[in-house]
Design goal:
Chain lengths: ~100, ~350, ~180
Amino acid sequence: MVPLSYYLILSGILFACGVTGFLIKRNIITIFLSIELMLNGANLSFVAFAAQWHALSGQVFVFFVMVVAAAEAAVGLAIIIAVFRTRETLNVDRVNLLKL
Amino acid sequence: MLSIETFVIVSVIKIVIALFVLLTAVAYTVWLERKVVGHIQNRWGPTRVGPFGLLQPLADGIKFLFKEDLTPPHVYKPLYIAAPMIALVCALTSISVIPVGNWVTVAGVHTPLQITDLNIGLLLILGITSMGVYGVALAGWSSNNKYSLLGGLRASAQMVSYEVSLGLSLVGVLILAGSFSLRDIVEAQGGHFWGFIPKWNIFYGGQIIAFFIYLISAYAETNRVPFDLPEAESELVAGYHTEYSAMKFAMFFMAEYANMITVACVASLLFLGGWHGPVFGPPILQAILPIFWFVLRVFGFLFVYIWVRGTLPRFRYDQLMAFGWKFLLPLAIANLVITALVVTLRS
Amino acid sequence: MEVHSGIEPMIHLTLFLLFGGICVAGAVNLLAQRHPINSALSLVVVMGSLAGEYLLLGAEFVAAIQVIIYAGAIMVLFVFVIMLLNAGEEERTGGSRVALLFGVPGMLIGTVLMAWVLLERSGTQAVSMGALPGPPKTIGWLLFHDFLLPFEVTSVLVLIAIMGAVVLASHPESVQQRNKER
């Protein structure tokens, strides 16, 4: 028997790592990866709460999160490619002009 | 119900046997390929080592073991070493859910002829196959060589694209069987239509289309001719494994053939009725015959693989992508919709 | 084949700690690595071990989809883009040092606080291995009955995302023109 709070703590740690990465990383791709990490942390708490309330809707929600993550990854990576093409850098600090 | 000790022992025995058989099969698929392609091209293939060159795989293995293991100075080392391992581990793991026959009782233990029967077995195979992309992509990237990089890029784009039609082609079968467990899918194919046509999925309505979609996308997934663009030797030297030698190269080689065998096993289980076939004779023969029918199907599928290699030229890359997205994917979706409609209307 | 014995809780805890440890190690490695491809691969490791955690909670279908879609498709896309852009090591600039100085301790304190609250007064129960089985059939039933409208809306969302990605990533003529002039 493992208390569900352990799962929730794990999910919290993952989310916190994601937030930290979002703050300290300067490479736009790594920032994107940190967002995915946060989504994963949220997914774990969805599944843990599904077990707590005996409601499968929690697990179904994970699919919606995944679909949103996939759509986000597709659009986000396209934006990254567009940014890299015009500015030739992936550092977010150098992407500070509205117009070239 | 088994006690935990028996469970562990039985599992370990099954894993050892499965790995041994799989690796032997890999070695002899290489031999078969060289022999068959040789005969197609009016040559003899391997003849020197042993009768009909049967010991050639052994000789090749020893050669790979004793060759110098070069690591070029400009590679990104951690990933360069990890990539072939990822490829091989992913290729070997997927055998764990493949059933090769019915339940048997050996020494008082009643056990299925497969390492483990999962109710998400097919999804596990798809998942592990999709992880196999990393081996190829990382090998291409970490080699720090333009041909390797191109091969890796091609491989990842191609495998992600064809995985979609591969997955969709299987959904029709899943709807018919109503389960992800490979054992259930095979058992749903027992019996005959009108007493003589076996009830295999390939004869079931439009599933023959699904079978061909699966066949084509599986060739692309395993980087085989006519879709072997990631390692196209006439354009990319050797593609993603240009910089690899000795055992590391052998790992990629084994992974490719192990993937072929897995694909052949899945095709036989899902479309060709698994181990169903005429069973007769004394009990010992009755136990062995299902395995024999299954191996025969896998062998047939592998033969077609090699036959295609000896026949078709390579696609151009834009043709490959256009074919996958504009032809195979719509066809797979149409097949899925029609199958779902038929099943719903019938029930 | 199910195995029942008295050591099941111990196995559960061990597996939880094993997968959880790999998860946290992967997440920390994501932060520590300078090269995006290493970060991406550690995220793949995190996702793989999260699939293990889902299995422990009984969500087998979620675990499989996690590996197929997240680790096998989305992350391959990331690796593909990193390879395509040939992204090098990250450079440190002024902004990240401030974030490092305040963000990391802040998040650490926040995590410890949250863990304390969860342990002391979350009111969650202890669960056994495979607590809430989520077989594909039931999940599918829920998706296509209770969640039909959200499901259809996500399909529109994906369609929009595909079109957006195509428009954004296709080479616009103005850029081609400028590259020619260079």
